[in-house]
Amino acid sequence: MARIFIAWELGGGLGHLSNVVTLSRQLCGQGHEVIFALNELSQLEKFSLPEGMTVVPAPASRRSPGRDFKTVCVSSILLNRGYSGVGTLSAMLRCWQGLYSLVKADLFIFDYAPTAMLAARPLTTPKVLLGADFYNLSPGHPNRQLAPWIPDAEQILRHHEARVVGVINAVSDYFGFSKLKYLGDLFATDLALLSTLPEIDDYPRDSQAVKYLSVGNPQAGLLKPHWCNNGKPKVLAYLKAANKQTKFVLEALLSAEADVMCFCAGLNQSDAETYQQAGLKLFTSPIAVSELLSEAQVIVCHAGKGMISESLRQGIPLMLLPGQLEQHRNATAVAEKKLGLMVPKHATTEQIGAILKTLSDNTIFRNNAISVAENHGYESAASMLSRGVDAIETLLSEPL
C-alpha cells in the first residue's frame, strides 16, 4: 500500500489535529502507512493515534527577525514566519527537502504547510490540500483581505503579497523551481479537501479539483456524553478558555434556559467545577461533537470554518465569538447570510444571553441554516470522511 506524508506547519488548536488524526485513522485502516509532521505537540496526547501512523516534529517555521508585519492577509502571516528574507526561507526549505528524501512518500497532504508545499513543488508526487479555505489560497488569484477595518489595508496587502512572492521566487530561482505570479499559485495541487462550504468559501475554485467536506472530530477514544433532555433548547458549545469572551459566554450558558453541552479547551478543572450545574454539562477534554450535532438547536463556537460548515450541514444556526482575523471574516460571512449571529467584542453576559435566546427563538436563522443543509443533503461527518478517503484512493490509483 501507499506511504502518505501529512504536513502541518502553521496554526494551532485542536482543529488541525482532529482533521489529520481522523483522516489518518481511515487511511491506516485501508492499509496505508501515514507519516505526520506536526507543528504543535501539546495537544497530541488527547488523541488516540491509529496503528500505522508515525509522528515526527515539523521543521520549525522561524519568526522573521526585525519588524513585525501588520497582519492583513496570509502573505502578512508568512512575512512574520520566515518569508521576509531569502536566507531563512532557504533553510526552512532544505529541512523539508531532507524529510522528503528520507520518507519517499507516494502522496503528500498539506494542512497549512506552505514551506512544505514549496519544497514539494518540483516533485511529481500527487498532492492534496486539507483544511480551511482562508489559508488554502486559490491558484491564479491574489490574497483576500483579512482585516478590512485597518487603514490602507488593500495597499498593505498588495505590498505584502509582492514581497512574499519576490522572496519565494528568489529562493525558487536558486533551487531551480518554477516561479509564482501570486502566492496562490503555490497552492496548485491535484486535489483540495476544504473544510468549508461553497456558499462561504473565500476564493473561487476549480470545481474539478476541490471537494467541500469536513472530516470532523475523530470519534474513537473521545467522550460521548448524553444530553440532559430537560425539554429545553439544546445548545452545543465548543470554546477556548484563552478567549477573553469565554468567561462571559460560560456565565450566559449557566443562566440560559437551555440544555447545554460544552467543551472548553484549556479550562482548569477547578474552574470547570464552578460551572457544572443542572442543565450545563462542561468538559475539559474533547467530546464527540459529531454525535451531538444532530440534536442541537444552536452551536456556540469561535468561528472556525470546520465547525461552521459541519453545523450548517446539519441545519443549525451559530453564535460566533471570533478570536482571530480569519474567524472574524468567517463570522461576518455567516451573519451577513443570516445563518447566525456574531457576539460583539465587548458584549456583557446579559447581551450574550440575549443573542443566544434570539437564535433559539427566531426561526429565520434556523430556516436559513436548514436551506443550506438541504442543498448539501444533510451530509454527515462519516459520509464526508468517506468521500475524502475515496478521493485520495482514486488519486493514488492514477498513473503519475
Structure commentary:
- The structure is a single chain.
- This protein is 39% helix and 16% strand.
- By secondary structure, the protein is an alpha/beta fold.
- It has 2 domains: 3-213 and 381-397, 3-Layer(aba) Sandwich (Rossmann fold), CATH 3.40.50; 234-375, Glycogen Phosphorylase B (Rossmann fold), CATH 3.40.50.2000.
- The model has no long low-confidence stretch (mean pLDDT 92).
Please describe the structure with a list of short key phrases separated by commas or semicolons.
alpha/beta, seven-stranded parallel sheet, single chain, 13 helices, six-stranded parallel sheet, 400 residues, globular, Rossmann fold, 2 domains
User: Largest sheet, described in full?
Assistant: 7 strands, parallel
What share of residues are in beta strands?
15-25%
How far is the first residue's CA from the last residue's CA?
16 Å
Low-confidence stretches: none
**Domain module tally:** 2
Helix content: 25-40%
Radius of gyration: 21 Å
H/I helix tally: 13
Alpha-beta content class: alpha/beta
CATH architectural group of the largest domain:
3-Layer(aba) Sandwich
Give the helix/strand layout:
Blueprint: E1 3-8, H1 14-29, E2 33-38, E3 53-57, H2 74-79, H3 86-103, E4 107-111, H4 114-120, E5 127-131, H5 153-175, E6 191-194, E7 210-212, E8 234-240, H6 246-255, E9 259-265, H7 269-275, E10 280-283, H8 289-293, E11 298-301, H9 305-313, E12 318-320, H10 325-336, E13 340-342, H11 349-361, H12 363-375, H13 381-397
Parallel strand pairs: 1-2, 1-4, 2-3, 4-5, 5-6, 6-7, 8-9, 8-11, 9-10, 11-12, 12-13
Helix pairs in contact: 1-13, 3-4, 3-5, 6-11
